[in-house]
Design goal:
Largest sheet: 8 strands, mixed
Shape: elongated
Bound molecules: histidyl-adenosine monophosphate
Strand content: 15-25%
Radius of gyration: 28 Å
Helix content: 25-40%
């Protein structure tokens, strides 16, 4: 009996079957995320994988796809409904409110971690996926919306992505949305039967989602639908203009997409999304976010505003590989020890430990006492030096050391291994 991973999941392993699943690439992307977040003054939050279901139904909207179709929800043994987090905004706000953080000074947080959505499994769409995201809480200035957008674009730049396209829109405040929803219902009512099944359902619950539907019939009908821009209040218009002007001033390229509304119900005012330039259908956004004033109050906290984004790590890694960007070099192993019999193995084992104590990475070849196979393993593990100890070396307190980069070899006293200072290392190298 062999077991398979759950559908819609993947394994990140060394020597993986696809380059985007390389753990070194993931670590590189995580490092860049942490570095860029720190530049903007964000502090990391590490949160539980699951929450009481209401945290999501109250925030994302019961009618959103994420809550209505995609959430992993189950009863725990105490009979409470809990859900694996499909995103991290609501859990972060729950934690913020629970910790009484409004009394403290931290108001910008970032997170990196897995989320779960029972999505249609396909390339770029997984049932467990990683998000890097940020949230700024309690600051209503439009400039923080721009900080979020700028951070997201800096992150893509830092990892080396080239073909990204940023789109922005404003969906106004609650009142604006209400008036716009009424206008949309009036417009779509005569075409109701021509809309996709999902959009027919959304007609009553959230008609805004019809205009960003990917179904061809919905897309066609949406072309002439009313645009949110004609419903924005003066304040919302001024805010959006400031955002667009500042993006231009800051040299952050973008396009305004009046049909961009995003898939979660909690957004208001600024919304943004980043896609691949050549992804015409805009099926798989690399990242997206927006403002969610009112959500913190909805979750039982103070009437604070909020803004943030989330970006999928898988999609970033896949795009990096597809763009053929120079991927991070494989991590090097300092020493690979090869023993040629059992008594040499005993000696090698203590050398192995000694090398590690000095802060160098080292491995011992266990599978056999064969020098050829040992060297092959050393090469595939990207070792810099191979140390070979056979009967002769053991007798004379020596080792054969091979520089696998320069491809030369010499016999040196074993005492060299006792002090692998840079100076000695240099002697080995020269
Ligand atoms: P979202 O657009 O639902 O927003 O997800 C953000 C990103 O997560 C997407 O752009 C995509 O890269 C990735 N993603 C989503 N679903 C999947 C999937 N099934 N497989 C792979 N990647 C996926 C949010 O989650 C909001 N919480 C973002 C936010 C933060 N808004 C304000 N603050």
């Amino acid at each position: 009996m062999t077991y398979h991973r759950v559908k819609g999941c993947y394994d990140i392993l060394p020597e993986a079957d696809e380059p985007w699943k390389d753990p070194a690439l993931w670590q590189f992307v995580f490092e860049k995320a942490r570095k860029v977040a720190a530049l903007y003054g964000f502090k990391e939050a590490i949160l539980p994988a699951f929450e009481y279901t209401e945290v999501f139904t109250r925030s994302s909207g019961e009618e959103s796809d994420i809550v209505s179709k995609e959430m992993y929800t189950f009863m725990d043994k105490g009979g409470r409904s809990v859900s694996l987090r499909p995103e991290l905004t609501a859990p972060l706000l729950r934690a913020y409110i629970e910790a009484g953080m409004q009394q403290k000074s931290s108001d910008r947080f970032f997170y990196i971690g897995p989320c779960w959505r029972y999505d249609r499994a396909q390339k770029g769409r997984y049932r467990q996926f990683y998000q890097f995201g940020t949230e700024i809480i309690g600051v209503s200035e439009a400039y923080v919306d721009i900080e979020c957008i700028s951070l997201l674009m800096d992150f893509y730049k830092a990892v080396g992505l080239k073909g990204t396209l940023l789109t922005v829109n404003s969906i106004g405040d609650k009142e604006t949305r209400k008036r716009f929803e009424t206008a949309l219902r009036e417009y779509f009512r005569p075409y109701l039967s021509e809309l996709s099944e999902d959009s027919q359902r959304r007609f009553e619950t959230n008609p805004l989602r019809i205009i960003d539907s990917k179904a061809p019939s919905d897309k066609e009908l949406s072309k002439n639908a009313p645009k949110i821009s004609s419903f924005l209040s003066d304040a919302a218009k001024i805010r959006f203009e400031l955002i667009c002007e500042t993006l231009v001033k800051e040299n952050i390229p973008f396009a305004v997409d009046l049909n961009l509304v995003r898939g979660l119900d909690y957004y208001c005012d600024t919304v943004f999304e980043v896609v691949r330039k050549e992804d015409e259908g805009r099926q798989n956004s690399l990242g997206g976010g927006g403002r969610y004033d009112g959500l913190i109050k909805e979750l039982g906290g103070p009437d604070y505003s909020g803004v943030g984004f989330g970006t999928g790590i898988e999609r970033v890694c896949q795009m990096l590989c597809e763009e053929n960007q120079a991927l991070p070099a494989q991590e090097q192993l300092d020493y690979y020890l090869i023993a040629l019999d059992e008594s040499c193995q005993r000696a090698c084992f203590s050398h192995l430990q000694e090398i590690r104590k000095q802060g160098f990475s080292a491995l011992l070849h266990y599978k056999n006492f064969n020098v050829k196979k040992g060297l092959k393993a050393a090469e595939s593990l990207h070792a810099r030096f191979a140390i070979i100890i056979g009967e002769e070396e053991l007798k004379n307190n020596q080792m054969t050391i091979k520089d696998l980069l320069k491809r030369d070899e010499r016999v040196l006293p074993i005492s060299f291994l006792m002090e692998l200072s840079n100076e000695n290392r240099h002697k080995i190298l020269t």
